[in-house]
Amino acid sequence: MKKKIYGLLSVFCMIFAPNLVMAATLQSQIDEASNGSVITLDTSYTENITIASDKDIIIDLNGQTLTSEMVVNGALTVRDSGTTGKIVSTNNVEVHGLDSAAYFTLESGTIEVANDYGLYTDNAVVKVLGGTVSSKYAALSGNNTKGAMTFVVSGGTIEAAMGPAIYMPGPISLDVTGGKILGGISLRMGKVNISGGVITAINDYIDMPTDTISGEPAYAYSGNVWFPDALYVIGGTYTTKIEGETNILDLKITGGEFESFNGKGSAIGIYDLGKVEQSMNVSISGSAILNTNSDTRTAYQVVDFKDLGVTPISGFGNASYIGKINTSLTGGIYSNDVSEYVESGYLAKLLVDEYYVYKINKVNIGSVTAGTVEVDKTEATKGDVIKLTLKPNEGYSLSSVKILDASGNEVEFIPSDNTFTMPDSEVTISVVYGLNKVEADAPVINTEEPVKEVTAGVTESAKVEEVLLDTISKDDKILAEIDGKDSVVKVTVENVEVKEEVATKVKEVLDKKATNVTIVDYLDINIAVKEKGTDTLLAPITELSSPIEFTVLLPETIEAVKTGYTRTYYIVRHHEGAVEILDAKLSEDGKTLSFSTDKFSEYAIAYSDSEVTSSTDTPTTTPETPETPKTSDNILVYVSLGFVGIAAIGYSLYNLKKRNSR
Question: How far apart are CA 338 and CA 297, in angstroms?
Fold first, then answer.
């Protein structure tokens, strides 16, 4: 009978044994994993684990919970491909480097430590790239009597229920570029760089520096004290016991937000206690933001015993050690005045309700032609309004103002009041004054009265005002610029030197029309809407809705037509790359040339002479030998216009909107 039973048991075991094997422990999976392996949790685990010093693995929480007293002697990366994955521990997660440094990286997921510090490190590197580290005491911490620690925070949330979120009693290296640090940062020494993130001070369980802990003032307590600042350095209290390290503090802040809203602390407080000698260097620049709502503290403050209002206990306040903190503020935004800490050559400027630290920069005068320029400030900070006094030489007027910052970027100049706003760098101002232009101002057309015919101006008996108002009314940009302003339309004409490629194109077009062509001159004709009284440009007009007629007084430099020859004049227009010959009419006295145009840019005056044949047909547009006109100026070509301006465009705008509803 027994044999039968044993036989049945043997068969049973053979059939069902594979399904009765216990699932492997997480520790066994870790021990068997090769470096670089990803262990994905398939269920929640409750077991203590150790990452050996020769291991470099990844644990994917996969939405599961790992309840564990964890020790990391090697390298461990934790991530959560789910949404609820976490590591839960009663005591701290120990990251302890043995023969070489240990590494712990949190990419995502949550670490919860109920009754202790969070990630407690020595001779280790801890990186928080995302996720959350939440603990009773400091989420990232170490010990000055053990190995050095390196913390990197670029994302995620680090928080402690009591005291600072990061406590660094030893020669730590801390690099913060992002994330939230809820509870602040406590330092004694180390190399610290902060360029981003939000760091907030505690609001509960605050230890004021003069409170008593274990029978001595909190400032003298050598452990984790909970001061009211978002970042605080308990300076000059002890040296490091880690071989090869020093207690030097090098704190560099170029960004990030530091907030202390408990009414008691600074955003950043540096406590100068002077028990031991310590080199401390603090620099704040860039876009760092420091805020406090305390009435007794500034956003940044070096706190000494006078500020604390107490006499230091024996051993503290050594005169040889205190008052030597090197602070340099060259940037940042502060909730109150920090002028006493601002570097020479910089200024804490109050804007609205915050202080901005800006560099004091020079306002340089560069090249100035045919006149002078003066500025009301030769040194200024960002945001200052600088006013220029422009003084052209006699016979000259302002042509251009160019203001460049230190990088060569152009700074906007406001011509209406001759000002510009100072950037955060030095500037160089260059001014060009040019010869005065010939500007013909025709009689003002009163838009409140019936429009009168204008004999010179628009062809086919059109009315000047109607053409101008029709053009302006169809241009929304011009209407927007002149809205509410007292405006006038003006024409300016000047002789110009055109680019070589333009001159070549004009000559090519003329050569196709006639032989022996001579170009007399080039004109630049402009029509623009300007502010009445100041002549400030409001809007250019490059094209009219209908053509208008110009009458050009020919320059006296043109040589007379030789006997036996006849002359034909041409007006050539170059506009937006297109070159065309316009119809031109010579006056009976041969002194003026008229043409119609609706586009405004560059024009050429030219002529060609041809020998008179036996035919009695002579061009009707050309007199036989026009007498050379005499003028008082051999350079400028004058243009006679039936108009140049319209006053009270602001009033006309109202009529335009009624008459040109579209």
Answer: 10
Q: What range defines the domain where residue 29 resides?
A: 1-136
Using the predicted structure, report yes or no on whether residue 553 has a pLDDT greater than 80.
no
- pLDDT tens column, 406-457: 999 999 999 999 999 999 999 999 998 876 643 333 333 333 444 333 333 3
- Asked if residue 345 and residue 369 are part of one domain, the reply reads no
Which residue type sits at 231?
L
Q: Identify the three-state secondary structure at position 413.
A: strand
Mean of per-residue pLDDT scores for the chain: 83
- 153 within domain boundaries: no
| Cβ atoms within 10 Å, residue 330 | 17
Residues 476, 393 within the same domain: no
398 and 459 inside one domain: no
Name the more confident of 7 and 219. 219
Q: Tell me which DSSP letter residue 82 carries.
A: S
Show the 3-state SS of 228-283. Answer: CCCEEEEECCCCCCCCCCCCCEEEEECCCEEEECCCCCCCEEEEECCCCCCCEEEE
Which residues, at least 6 apart from 548, have a Cβ–Cβ distance to it below 8 Å? 457, 458, 459, 464, 467, 596, 597, 598, 641, 642, 643
Whether 115 and 223 share a structural domain: no
Question: Rounded to the nearest 5 degrees, what angle is found at the Cα of 188, between the Cα atoms of 315 and 329?
Answer: 105
Pairing of strands 385-392, 419-421: antiparallel
pLDDT exceeds 70 at position 459:
no
| pTM exceeding 0.90 | no
3-state DSSP of 438-455: EEECCCCCCCCCCCCCCC
Mean pLDDT, rounded, for 125-136: 98
Check residue 370 and give its pLDDT. 86
Residue-level pLDDT at 483: 67
Helices 649-659 and 464-473 sit at what angle, rounded to 10 degrees?
70
Question: Which residues have CB under 8 Å from 106's CB, separation 6+?
Answer: 77, 78, 127, 128, 129, 130, 131, 133, 156
Q: What is the pLDDT of residues 477-535, one digit of tens each?
A: 777 777 666 677 777 677 778 888 888 898 889 888 888 888 888 887 778 777 777 77
Say whether both 528 and 582 belong to one domain: yes
Q: Which of 365, 366, 367 is nearest to 376 (CA)?
A: 365
| Same domain, residue pair 591 and 532 | yes
What pLDDT is attached to residue 475? 78
Is residue 613 located within the same domain as residue 481? yes
Task: Please give the tally of structural domains in the chain.
Answer: 4
pLDDT of residue 480: 73
